[in-house]
Specification:
The chain contains 20 helices and 20 strands. It is of the alpha/beta class. The chain folds into 2 domains: 5-352, Alpha-Beta Barrel (TIM Barrel), CATH 3.20.20; 363-503, no CATH class. It has a 6-stranded parallel β-sheet. The protein has a 5-stranded mixed β-sheet with strand order 17-16-15-19-20, covered by helices on one side. The N and C termini lie far apart (78 Å). The model has no long low-confidence stretch (mean pLDDT 93). The structure holds zinc ion. The site of zinc ion has 6 residues, from helix 12 and helix 14.
């Protein structure tokens, strides 16, 4: 067969749904490889398959040490795609391993893995600059020397990119790695930062390498497999993940949720309806024999991972990946920090990669401040303020508080010369763009009607629109919610061109 090939089917933000076509099958990305240990695997591969995982990863170095010499598919079962890791992780843990790059390359060929990794030299979490430079140099020189020995026609070969948290080094290392024609690139996530919930550094690392890698090469994030982080890593451009956590956590009675990990003994109710959680209660699981409990918890953990992968893919199809990030960011403060960081630091990176139209466009949901960084909302605001020209026949602009979640163009004012524009705390939208996507399809909560600070934001949006479009109209009327009249008048003092008209916004009388 020719070389492994990667095709991108759908995209949203910097995330994509892709197909990694290998000799023995196709992996749909984003995908997470469950880590398996053939000598100790409480959850059989056949059950992992049933959950929907058609590829697993195992450690080639450990297999080599144990004298394993069969083809992997003979023990995993046909139809299971096997990825092997080279042992670099052990190198990082124990400082050295007794195997060289050439041996591990030949060994991975012998056990016929479908996706194989050269023996890199991991930077890991190291803050030591000289050490990081050394890891980059050694890895790149091995990557170059290995190329003639790699059988790309039989399997996909992975090149891990080193440099770690030293972003300038990582950038250079990614650039040089990209010039070597590997099938898949990988990035190690810094475990220490991950354990302390410092995900921002992973975001910086992903953006750094993605900026240098060819578009049609998948990126694997080593060790970034917690379900709560997956949508964020995908949105930043990661395609592949692996995780041993599902099993390590299970052995320690830890139960994964989309919002983090809980201890089984702390749960009165299982917040999941996977086959495991539908059949057993937390108490029943606790009373089981350890081995059986581990198997079931590992299974549940993988169901959660699969569910997050599916949610992420559906969000990509609908162009709602940003909304999914907003949803997940409410699950844990560290994710809220991460979303804020991405909005401020990596907005352009994300926006440049967002398509103008999703595959299946649907309403765009706005919530609060963070929704302003949703590329579809950001672009709508920008378009309406900078490029949109009102219909020329309209002489009077009427800025009206938006009292309904959606706008329709049915509510056209009786007077032909009036141009109606709705304003809220997110943006100002003229009625005549109601059918335009995404401008007319942003669903905005009425929150600004209930809270002064948000209402003042809405007033600022109205003013901004009026200032930009003043020259198109002879008269500008700003309808102001009666409930916030005092504060509004104060804010509007310096803008003399408005005719201000108080209107009732809330269907109740304040006492
Ligand atoms: Zn479950």
């Amino acid at each position: 067969m020719p070389r492994a090939e990667f095709r991108v089917r759908e995209r949203d933000l910097a995330g994509r749904i892709g197909e990694l076509r290998l000799k023995r099958g196709i992996i749909e990305t984003p995908y997470l490889f469950p880590v398996i240990d053939l000598s100790r695997q409480e959850l059989p591969v056949s059950e992992i398959r049933e959950i929907g995982f058609n590829a697993v990863i195992t450690n080639a170095y450990l297999l080599y040490k144990r004298g394993f010499s069969q083809a992997l598919r003979d023990v995993l079962g046909s139809g299971v795609i096997a990825m092997t890791d080279s042992g670099a992780y052990q190198l990082m843990e124990y400082g050295s391993i007794d195997i060289d790059n050439e041996t591990i390359i030949e060994y991975q060929k012998r056990i016929d893995s479908d996706i194989a990794v050269i023996l890199d030299y991991p930077t890991g979490d190291s803050l030591d600059r000289a050490f990081a430079e050394k890891t980059v140099e050694i890895t790149l020189s091995r990557a170059k020397d290995s190329l003639p020995k790699l059988d790309f026609e039989n399997r996909a070969w992975v090149l891990p990119i080193q440099g770690g948290v030293h972003l300038d080094l990582l950038d250079k290392s990614a650039e040089l790695s990209a010039s070597l024609d590997y099938d898949i690139y990988a990035l190690g996530s810094p475990t220490v930062m991950m354990e302390s919930y410092n995900y921002e550094v992973v975001a910086d690392m992903l953006v750094t390498v993605k900026n240098k890698l060819p578009y049609l090469k998948p990126l694997h994030l080593f060790g970034g497999g917690h379900p709560m982080l997956i949508p964020f890593a995908v949105a930043l451009g990661a395609d592949l993940f692996d995780s041993a956590s599902y099993m390590l956590f299970a052995r320690d009675n830890r139960y994964m949720t989309e919002k983090g990990t809980k201890r089984l003994e702390d749960l009165d109710y299982l917040p999941c309806s996977c086959p495991v959680c539908s059949r057993f209660t937390a108490k029943e699981l606790m009373e089981m024999e350890q081995k059986e409990r581990t198997r079931l918890l590992a299974k549940h953990n993988l169901y959660i991972v699969m569910s997050v992968l599916r949610k992420t893919k559906q969000a990509i199809v609908e162009g709602r990946l940003w909304e999914l990030l907003e949803e997940f960011s409410r699950g844990h403060p560290s994710l809220y920090s991460l979303l804020t960081y991405i909005s401020k630091r990596h907005y352009l990176y994300i926006e440049n990669r967002t398509p103008s139209l999703p595959m299946r466009p649907s309403s765009v949901f706005a919530f609060g401040e963070e929704s302003l960084s949703n590329p579809y909302i950001y672009r709508s605001r920008k378009f309406l303020l900078e490029r949109y020209a009102p219909p020329p026949s309209r002489k009077e602009l009427v800025l009206r508080p938006r009292l309904s979640l959606t706008i329709t163009d049915e509510a056209v004012p009786d007077k032909e010369e009036v141009h109606l524009v709705y304003y809220d705390h997110i943006m100002s939208v003229p009625v005549d763009v109601a059918r335009l996507y995404p401008e007319g399809h942003v669903v905005v909560p009425k929150a600004f009607l209930y809270e002064e600070e948000l209402y003042m934001k809405a007033i600022r949006n109205a003013v901004e629109y009026a200032l930009r479009k003043k020259m198109f109209y002879q008269k500008i009327t700003l309808e102001v919610c009666y409930e916030w009249l005092g504060a509004s008048l104060k804010a509007l003092r310096e803008y003399q061109f408005f005719n201000i008209k108080p209107v009732m916004c809330l269907n109740r009388v304040e006492s």
